C-alpha cells in the first residue's frame, strides 16, 4: 500500500525542551523529591531523633560511635531495604495488572506472596531442623540468603497455577484468575499457619513477625540479598515496556500485531513473580503496595507506560519507607509492621482517586 | 494472495468451518455473509493465523499461514477484531501508533517513519483533529475510524475486519464502509470483512462469499450471489430483489416465520 508524502519530523531539541517543561517531567521530579525527603526522614527520625548536623556527620563518619551505629547499622540499611521492597512490590503489581489486563491483580491477591511464604517458612523450619540435628549446640538459624530462592520457587509454582487455572477457552479470564488466586492464597496461608503451629517451636515468634511483613531488624545483609534481584527485575521490566504497551489490547489483536503473546506473557509473569517473591523471602509478605502504587501511577501518568514505570519505582519506594517510618515512630517503642501502615495510608488515597475517576 | 484449501476449523470438538476452499482476490473487497454461527468470524481468524486448521490449509503467497513468522505476517496482514479493547486512558495518537509495533524491533521507541505512518493513517481516516483526545471519550463511529487508522498504520496490504459495523448506527456504518471502499480504490488495499447487512455487502463488495453451517454455499459477484433462492435458502427470508444503487442488487424481505403468522403483512418496498 502506498503512502502519501508526510510532514517533516519533529526536531529532537524541541521535544527535549517540551519534555522538561511538561507535566510529566514535573510528576517525575515531584516523585524524586518526595523520595529524597522520606529517605532523609528515615535516617533522621526514630526512637532517638537526630539533628541534620548529626546525620550529616554520621554519614561522613565524623560523629560519635553511638550516632554512627544508629545511622549506619540500624537506620540506613533499614531505610534502603524499604526502598527496595517498595520497588519490588510496586513493579510486580504493575506487571501483573498489565499482563492480565486485570486491575485487581497483585502478588498478594493472586496468592503469589502466600505461595512464596509457605515455601520460605517450610525451608526455614526444615533447614533449622537439619542444622540443629547436625550440631545441637549450634544455634545459628538457617541462612538468610537462601530464603529468597525458596520463596521464588513457591511464588513461581503458585503464579503458574493461577495463570493456567485462570484460563478459559484459551483466553486469560481476569475474573477467574482473581478468584483462583484469592482461593489459593487462603489455602496457602492456612497451610503456612498450620506448619508454623506444628513445627515452629522456638522460632514461631520470629516467623510470625516475618509473616506480618516487617522491616524490623533489616540489616545490610538483607539489602545485599535483595539487590541482585532488584537489578534483574528492573532489567526485565525495561525489556518488557514496549511489548506491554501492545499487550493492553485484546489477545487476538495483540497476536495480529506480530507479538508472540504466550512467550511475552510468560516472561512478564516470571519477572513479576521474581520481584514479589524475592521481597517476600527477605521481609515477608507486604500487601497493598503492589495494588495501590500501580493504580496511583496510572492515574497520575495516564496511558504512558514508561512514565508509569518510573512513578511506580519512585512512589513504591516512598510508600514503603514512609509506612515503615510511621510504623516505628508513631507508637514507639512498639512497632507496627510496614504492611499494616501501607494499607492504612494507601487505601484512603486509593478511594479518593477512585471517587474522582471520570 | 490469500486462499484456503479444504479448510476445516474447530473449537475443541465443535466443528465450525467445514471443507471451505476459496480465494481472496488481490486488491478487492470481499464480504463474508451468513447467518449467526455460520463460521464467518472463525474463518477470518484463521486467515490471520489465529486458529490452527483442523484439516486443510490457509495459504498466504502459497505458504501456509501457520508457518509464517508472526511479525512477518503482521507486516502483510492486519486484523480488526469485532470488539477491540481500548487501553485505559490512551490517546488517539498513541493507540494508532501501536499499529507500528511490527515495523520496529521490540525494544525500539517510535521511529520517525513510525510517526509519519501514524500521521498518514490519521489523515486518511479523518481523525487528525482528534489526535490528542482520549479514545474512550469518542463516539462509536469515531472510535471505529481510529481502529481502522491503527490497522492502516500497520501498512499491510490486506485488512481483515470482523463485523466492523456491528455497534454503529446506520450513518456511521455507511461512513466506515465508504472509508474502506475509498482506501481500497486509492491504495489498492485488499479488504476482507464479515457483514450482516446484505444490501451493504452488495453495495460495497466486489465479491461475496456466503457461508451456511460452516460450509461455503456460494461465492461470486453481488449480482451472481444475491438471488431470491439463495437468500431464502441461507437466511430463511422471502425477498424481492430489485436493481438498486449503481445497478447493484437490492433486496427487501420478511422472515419465513412472519409469513406463516400473517399472510396479510404488507411487503417492504425497496426505496433507493
Concise account of the structure shown:
By secondary structure, chain A is mostly helical. Chain A has helices at residues 12-20, 23-44, 52-60, 65-99, 112-134, 147-165, 174-199, 204-211, 220-247, 251-256, 261-283, 289-301, 305-329, 338-356; strands at residues 167-168, 171-172. Helices cover 74% and strands 1% of the residues of chain A.
Report what the structure shows:
Chain A: Belongs to the binding-protein-dependent transport system permease family. FecCD subfamily. Chain A: It is a multi-pass membrane protein. Chain A: Keywords: Cell membrane, Membrane, Transmembrane, Transmembrane helix, Transport. Chain A: This is Iron(III) dicitrate transport system permease protein FecD. The complex is a heterodimer of chains A (358) and B (272). Chain A is mostly helical. Mean pLDDT of chain A is 83; it is low at 1-10. Chain A has a single domain, classed as Orthogonal Bundle (ABC transporter involved in vitamin B12 uptake, BtuC). Chain A has 14 helices and two strands; from the N terminus they run ααααααββαααααααα. Helices cover 74% and strands 1% of the residues of chain A. In chain A, β1 (167-168) and β2 form a beta hairpin. Chain B has two domains: 2-226, Rossmann fold, CATH 3.40.50; 227-272, no CATH class. Chain B has helices spanning 40-47, 70-76, 92-97, 112-125, 140-153, 170-187, 198-204, 222-225, 228-235, 256-261, and strands at 2-11, 14-23, 29-33, 55-60, 63-64, 77-80, 158-162, 190-194, 207-212, 215-220, 237-243, 249-255. In chain B, β1 (2-11) and β2 form a beta hairpin. In chain B, α4 (112-125) packs antiparallel against α5 (140-153) and α5 (140-153) runs parallel beside α6. The mean pLDDT of chain B is 87. The interface between A and B is large, with 30 and 48 residues.
